[in-house]
Amino acid sequence: MFGHDRGSHRVMSLALQGGGAHGAYTWGVLDALLEDGRFSFEGISGSSAGAMNAVALAHGFLLGGHEGAREALAGFWDGVAMLGSPELVPPVFDASLPPPGASWMMQLSRWLSPYQLNPLAINPLRDLVESQFDFERLQEECPFELFVAATHANTGELRLFRNNELIADALLASACLPSMHQTVIIDGEPYWDGAYAANPAVFPLLRFCDARDVLLVLLSPLRYERTPRGADEIQQRTLDLAFSNAFRREMRLLAAMREMAIESGWLSGTLEQRLLSLRFHLIDGEAALGKLAFSSKVVANQAFLHRLRDAGRSAAQQWLAAHGEAVGHRASVDIERIFLPAR
Prior knowledge:
Blueprint: E1 10-16, H1 23-36, E2 39-47, H2 49-83, H3 100-111, H4 114-117, H5 124-132, H6 135-141, E3 145-152, E4 158-161, H7 168-174, E5 184-186, E6 189-193, H8 203-207, E7 213-218, H9 231-264, H10 270-277, E8 279-284, H11 286-289, H12 302-323, H13 335-339
Parallel strand pairs: 1-2, 1-7, 2-3, 7-8
Antiparallel strand pairs: 3-4, 3-6, 5-6
Helix pairs in contact: 1-2, 1-12, 2-5, 5-7
InterPro entries: Acyl_Trfase/lysoPLipase, NTE, PNPLA_dom
GO molecular function, one term: hydrolase activity
Organism: Candidatus Dactylopiibacterium carminicum
């Protein structure tokens, strides 16, 4: 299968970044890719909301192919919208400004731990994922190689949950913000949000998959337009960087290794050949998400989520028009130029 189409579809792997409610942007990207119908997927790596999208895509694809995946993604995000409290989030708001309810919740989480705020560990997201996804069937019949990232709370090490390990707790661990949710315990080990260790992890798509094309769907800006000065802005930026630095380091290493392989002429090894065979592609949500308030990541508001979905669909449609035919033939983005520092 290496380097070839799967049936009539061009095969690629997906790396899906997390970002709370901003993950609805990725929903839109995936919806457009599925509607286009030219592509199938071999591996999907995701953290936090990226992991939610990955499992929704896989579950729906298992049940009904491309259209089933579109329905499952819509069902999941509309379910997320049902979890929102109308009293905390107004139906219409300026997402460039901190929404009052969400901002209040995030401020409160700075002073009180989830063990104080929510001693019973009530998590509506658990009910949603358990009702939406058939984890037992996914363990046995998942149509893709899934890599759900979580961070070990006591070591900081990355833990990747693969197909045969998919359970609701693995998905909840990947999206466990420790300031807002109690630690998720799996087999006696504590886990937090996967974005701390990888957002998302790219290496498993190289190590365990054959597809040469890898599409990166990013929610965090690769470069910010201005330096924050206010106290809240500074704190938000530090959180953003904490959630994206592991990914940046990994991509910088991959780009450097590819460059070294070319410069040294070491092209005979399996690793070098694999690295140089990869064709990277990128859909970046910076234009739609870059000016949104950090606290909008916890907004479960249907109008807002649909707005992000539509932005993701539009970005993907533009990418498809410009680069869809590149899949299977050539890269559409130069990762060396993006991720290696200028010299």
